[in-house]
Amino acid sequence: MLLSSRTPRVAALLxxxxxxxxxxxAAPAEPLGIGDRLFPHLGNPGYDVTDYDISFTYxxxxxxxxxxxxxxxxxxxxxxDRINLDFSxxxxxxxxxxxxxxxxxxxxEDLVVTPAAAxxxxxxxxxxxxxxxxxxxxxxxxxxxxxxxxxxMANQADAAHRVFPSNDHPSDKAYFTFRVTAPKGYTxxxxxxxxxxxxxxxxxxxxxxxxxxMATELAQVSIGRSAVLHQEGPQGLPVRDVVPAKDAxxxxxxxxxTPGQISWMEGKVGNYPFENYGLLIAQASxxxxxxxxxxxxxxxDLFKEPAYPKWYVESIMxxxxxxxxxxxxxxxxxxxxxxxxxxHATWYESLYAQEKADRPMAKRMxxxxxxxxxxxxxxxxxxxxxKPTSDGKISIxxxxxxxxxxxxxxxxxxxxxxxxxxxxxxxxxxTHRDSTxxxxxxxxxASQLTGRDLSGFFDAWLYGKKxxxxxGHPDWKSDPVSKH
Length: 484
Ligand SMILES: [Zn+2]
Description:
Blueprint: E1 2-3, H1 6-17, E2 47-57, E3 66-76, E4 83-86, E5 92-97, E6 100-101, E7 103-107, E8 110-114, E9 124-133, E10 143-147, E11 150-154, E12 175-183, E13 187-190, E14 193-200, E15 203-209, E16 221-224, E17 226-232, E18 238-244, H2 248-255, H3 258-269, E19 279-282, E20 288-289, E21 296-299, H4 310-325, E22 330-332, H5 338-357, H6 361-379, H7 403-416, H8 418-431, E23 435-437, H9 439-450, H10 455-463
Parallel strand pairs: 2-12, 19-21, 22-23
Antiparallel strand pairs: 1-20, 2-3, 3-9, 4-8, 5-6, 5-9, 7-8, 10-11, 12-15, 13-16, 14-15, 17-18
Helix pairs in contact: 3-4, 4-5, 5-7, 6-7, 7-8, 7-10, 8-9
Bound molecules: zinc ion.
Zinc ion binds at residues 1-2, 319, 323, 342, 345.
């Protein structure tokens, strides 16, 4: 994710320019979580999802609930007398577990399901929920994003369960099939590759499937008056962009940048990790761009705002592209590992600007160093970020996880050298491909590859209240934190 509230972004740009728990049979139905430090109630214990198959019927009005069926294939990892799913924003009509009708109740942000028979550990668990999926209003926490011509999805950090019942935590990745029925004139696109398109009277039904496992927060379904444009990336990679039909021609010069950006990223970290890529350009003011897997979400205005220099817009495109490796293919085990997503995406965003537009990274990093103590005071240290505020779950996306964390990577490169740093980056994305990883995994790999115990270095940089001295730049200073 990259926050983009319009005015602050221009201001910032000008500034840069100048410079487990078991479910007991007798326990009451209650919301459960897996104890994420930042979102303790999200995710659920006792099962591991392997497949989601989600059908939506769109009625041509983004102010009305969609009809939906969510089928979940999972494996029980403990005895389950009750099964908690995360789901908060629709009406549930029926639930079956392993083919038999189940009782259910909504508790907090959970849908608590009581199967007719308890499920044993290791046993397959097939859950079918018939429900609606309500796109209203949802501004603060997101989930469905209402666009001018339909809907898109923005589920980060934990809003997928506002759209469909799920185990809504990035530690439980699964394969997804999306089936969307929409009236004439609309086009539906989702993550992954198309597998079917059928006409049903006046409506069309599309189906897409992911070739790789995906976190719920990275799901994307676009329904709109869209054009779908195809081009080829490196080694024949299908590049598919989804844009408002009326803007297709005007947006093409931007879309043409993607294949070269993919080649550039592959040169840095190795092969692109998924089956396809492309931009979803939506007519909506979300206030951010988002790395939804294989199909990154962008606001149309990013490409239309004359105040943004070309190099800047391209570096934002690279930010979301870099997330396909860092955040999507290798996704965070917990939300406290968010710095690994955003620190790397900011790193490649900044490196691209240096190599392609002569915007030195050292200059940006020196500015980040100056602000670093204040960023830590505001958002906590990079790997122990402060909890979300009342402004919503996306309030964890503070400056410390962006430039404050790219700065950690800069310090690391200064400490171990550019060659070792690049080897670490390449090994990281290949070792943890299609999986989840933690901060401790990153520290361990860096130490292994360099033959040095880097735990002290990382402790100071990732968990310190104050920014440690920058290796090789003893003159860099962090501004004192102003007290209000
Ligand atoms: Zn990001």
